[in-house]
Structure formats: structure tokens, C-alpha cells
């Protein structure tokens, strides 16, 4: 039975020294020696790039860092060289000296953590959701409802000249006054000259009144053909005695309400689809707006039946007259019209709004325009259906 051999200081020093040409020297001096540390560092960096949320303050601590392989290798070499100076302590423990391995001691020692700056990722950090605001607690108080004062303070009493009308003709001539008839006669004569200067048609106010009277009578006695009104059997003696068929057709071919020289074609600024009858419409609207209004008013559409082939003709299946021109009318509970517009498809034109009016949409802007003539702060009641409402 052999006796245990005790190691002295020289044996321990020789055992700790690494022979020249060994793989340990190459691993300690090579950049690729710490493969495990490099692999761990690559995995951590990949996680940081693919998951920006790891950059939150709760994840990284200033006291935790990722050491580089070069710094760890140098620290291991310093530890190994410094251990040779403590041979006396190693000699006092012979049972553990045989288990010393340079490779295991190098791997077992770990570098101390060095504080490093925080990693800044080029990816945008996720925005933390805002905390919901606490709900406001409303305090309801029981009290009596006090409605506002809605007493009507406007004037709805008819005065002169409305109280002096005794016949329907006087009522009609109030709207078609002498100024309007003179304007129509002048524009009709001008148009006949522009149409054929060799055969001008001189239109007078008297002939124009006769022409308008025959047109109104045609609504009461409809005929499949206008020429039948001058027939000896089916004709009407009043029409035959008022105007001949030739004069009626000649006047109908030149009737005009506006000067074509001022017409602006489609696509240019200021184009008006109702240019041909604009003077007539504006005159009638001013006459209607001057009538004192009643307390309750309504805005709705009305159909003017026609069989004419015109792009302004509309189709409303829920109306008694399904085909015709659609009129947007402001009227009262007695069916009197105070203002109106002819639907032309340009109801949302910015040029039709005043500077102090908001854009509420095509249908709501109609109510605003038709109510311009309604007196303010006099508690008028205006009604309209869901076609004109908006938030």
C-alpha cells in the first residue's frame, strides 16, 4: 500500500502552467474561444431586435449587462496568473489539489457585471394605452320644467294692397305687374331679332296679356292638339275671338325672359341652369316674400306636372303627379307659398350660401335659404320632414 504523495509549491506551479502549443493557449488567445458566450449574446441581441417591447424600463436594469467575450477571456487569464502567488494555501489542501483543471477553473470563473448604457432600438417603441378617465357623476335635481316663451310676436295681418283684391285677375296682375310684362315683351322682341332679323316680331304688352290668358285657359280645357282650340267644331269661341292661331304660334316661338348674350355655357363660373327664366323667378319670389307670414310654416317639395322632355324633370313615385318639375316651397297651414325654388341639382352650390351660413348639406341648406325671409326672434314655427333634417 503506497503512501499519499503531498504536492509542494513547485508541483502546483508546474501543474497550473499551460504547455506551449496546447489548445488552451489557442483558445485563450483566439477571438472565437468563448463560443458559448458569443452564442448567448447573439440570441439576446436577436430578441432585442425582433421584440422592441423588451426595451421597456421594467425589463432592463442598469446593473445588468452583457459582457463581451474578449473582456471575459482577459479576466480569466488574470485570475489564472494570480493564483500562482497563493501556493501556500493550495499546499495546505492536498485532497482538492488533484481536481484542479485549468480548463474547468477558467470556465467556472465568471466575470463581474459591468454597468453598460441602455440599448436604443431603431424600431418605434409601443405606445402604452391611456388609462380610461373616470366617469363623471351627474347629480340630478328634481325641479319643474320651465318651457321657454314661445309667444308669437310677428305680424300676420294682411294689409293693402292684399285686402283690395276683388277678382282673380287683380290677384294675378299683382304678381305679373306692368314692369314684368314690359320686360318679357322687350326680351321677346329682342330674341325675334336675334333669331331672324329679316322677320322681327313686335311683341306688345296687350298681346302678351292675351297670350298668357289663353295659356291659363288651356289648363281648364285640355286638348290633344293646340290647333283644335281654333277648330270650328271643337274650338272655344273666346279663344278664337281673342287671337288668331297664326299670331299665337308666332308669339309662342319668340317668347323669352332673359337676354341670351349674358348666358354662360356649362363648365364656366356663374353658369345657371335656370338662366332662361331667372328674371321671372326672382320677380315672383320677391312678390311672395313680401306677403306677411303666418305663425306656422312648412318646408316641403311640390310637383309641377309636365310631359316636357327636359333634364330638370324629376320622378317621385309617392306624389300624385309622379313626373314633373320639383318645387321646394315654404308655405303656411293655408297652403300659401311665401318662397320657392326649382330643383336643378345645384342646391349645394357654395355660391348660393351667404358668408355667415354654414354648410349643413344639400337638403338642409334648402331650409336655410327658404327661411331667410322669415323675421328673426319672433317665434315662428317651422316644420319639415326627415328629408331636410341633419344633426
List keywords for this structure.
391 residues; alpha+beta; five-stranded mixed beta sheet; 36% helix
What does this structure look like?
This protein is α+β, with helices and mostly antiparallel strands and 391 residues long. 36% of the residues lie in helices and 8% in strands. The protein has helices at residues 9-16, 23-29, 35-50, 69-82, 87-91, 94-97, 102-108, 168-175, 178-195, 205-220, 237-242, 245-254, 278-289, 362-370; strands spanning 296-305, 313-315, 323-332, 337-342, 381-384. Strands 1, 2, 3, 4 and 5 form a 5-stranded mixed β-sheet that branches. Strand 2 and strand 3 form a beta hairpin. Helix 4 crosses helix 7. The longest helix has 18 residues, at 178-195. It is elongated, with a radius of gyration of 51 Å. The N and C termini lie far apart (109 Å). The model is unreliable at 23-29 and 53-108 (pLDDT under 50). Residues 167-391 form the PiggyBac transposable element-derived protein domain. This is PiggyBac transposable element-derived protein domain-containing protein. Residues 85-132 are annotated as: Disordered. Residues 93-107 have a biased composition (Polar residues).
Q: Please tell me how large the radius of gyration is.
A: 51 Å
The shape, in one word, is: elongated
SS content category? alpha+beta
* Count of separate DSSP helical elements: 14
Q: What's the N-to-C terminus distance?
A: 109 Å
What string gives the helices and strands in order?
A: HHHHHHHHHHHHHEEEEHE
Low-confidence region ranges = 23-29, 53-108
pLDDT averaged over residues: 78
Using DSSP, what is the number of strands?
A: 5
Strand content: 5-15%
Q: Biggest sheet: strands, sense, closure?
A: 5 strands, mixed
What would you call the quaternary organization?
A: single chain
How much helix, percentage-wise, in residues? 25-40%
Region (Disordered): 85-132
Organism: Parnassius mnemosyne
Biased composition (Polar residues): 93-107
Domain PiggyBac transposable element-derived protein: 167-391
Amino acid at each position: 500500500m503506497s503512501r499519499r504523495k503531498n504536492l509542494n509549491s513547485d508541483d502546483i506551479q508546474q501543474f497550473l502552467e499551460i504547455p506551449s502549443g496546447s489548445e488552451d493557449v489557442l483558445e485563450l488567445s483566439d477571438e472565437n474561444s468563448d463560443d458559448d458566450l458569443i452564442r448567448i449574446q447573439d440570441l439576446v441581441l436577436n430578441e432585442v431586435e425582433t421584440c422592441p417591447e423588451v426595451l421597456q424600463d421594467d425589463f432592463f436594469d442598469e446593473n445588468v449587462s452583457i459582457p463581451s467575450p474578449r473582456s471575459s477571456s482577459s479576466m480569466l487569464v488574470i485570475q489564472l496568473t494570480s493564483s500562482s502567488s497563493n501556493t501556500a494555501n493550495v499546499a495546505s489542501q492536498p485532497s482538492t489539489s488533484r481536481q484542479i483543471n485549468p480548463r474547468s477553473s477558467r470556465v467556472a470563473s465568471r466575470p463581474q457585471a459591468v454597468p453598460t448604457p441602455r440599448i436604443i432600438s431603431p424600431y418605434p417603441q409601443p405606445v402604452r394605452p391611456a388609462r380610461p378617465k373616470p366617469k363623471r357623476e351627474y347629480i340630478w335635481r328634481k325641479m319643474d320644467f320651465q318651457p321657454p316663451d314661445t309667444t308669437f310676436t310677428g305680424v300676420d295681418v294682411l294689409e293693402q294692397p292684399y285686402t283690395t283684391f276683388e277678382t282673380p285677375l287683380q290677384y294675378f296682375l299683382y304678381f305679373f305687374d306692368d314692369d314684368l310684362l314690359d320686360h318679357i315683351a322687350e326680351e321677346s322682341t329682342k330674341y325675334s331679332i336675334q333669331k331672324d332679323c329679316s322677320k322681327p316680331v313686335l311683341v306688345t304688352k296687350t298681346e302678351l296679356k292675351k297670350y298668357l290668358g289663353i295659356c291659363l285657359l288651356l289648363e281648364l280645357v285640355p286638348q290633344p292638339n293646340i290647333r283644335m282650340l281654333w277648330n270650328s267644331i271643337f274650338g272655344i269661341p273666346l279663344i278664337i275671338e281673342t287671337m288668331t292661331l297664326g299670331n299665337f304660334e308666332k308669339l309662342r316661338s319668340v317668347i323669352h325672359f332673359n337676354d341670351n348674350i349674358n348666358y354662360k355655357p356649362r363648365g364656366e363660373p356663374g353658369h345657371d341652369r335656370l338662366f332662361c327664366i331667372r328674371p321671372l323667378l326672382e320677380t315672383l319670389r320677391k312678390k311672395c316674400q313680401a306677403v306677411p307670414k303666418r305663425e306656422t310654416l312648412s318646408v316641403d317639395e311640390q310637383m309641377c306636372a309636365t310631359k316636357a322632355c327636359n333634364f330638370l324633370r324629376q320622378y317621385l313615385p309617392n306624389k300624385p303627379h309622379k313626373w314633373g318639375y320639383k318645387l321646394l316651397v315654404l308655405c303656411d297651414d293655408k297652403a300659401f307659398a311665401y318662397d320657392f325654388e326649382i330643383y336643378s341639382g345645384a342646391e349645394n352650390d357654395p355660391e348660393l350660401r351667404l358668408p355667415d351660413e354654414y354648410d349643413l348639406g344639400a337638403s338642409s341648406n334648402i331650409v336655410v335659404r327658404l327661411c331667410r325671409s322669415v323675421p328673426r326672434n319672433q317665434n315662428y314655427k317651422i316644420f319639415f320632414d326627415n328629408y331636410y333634417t341633419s344633426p
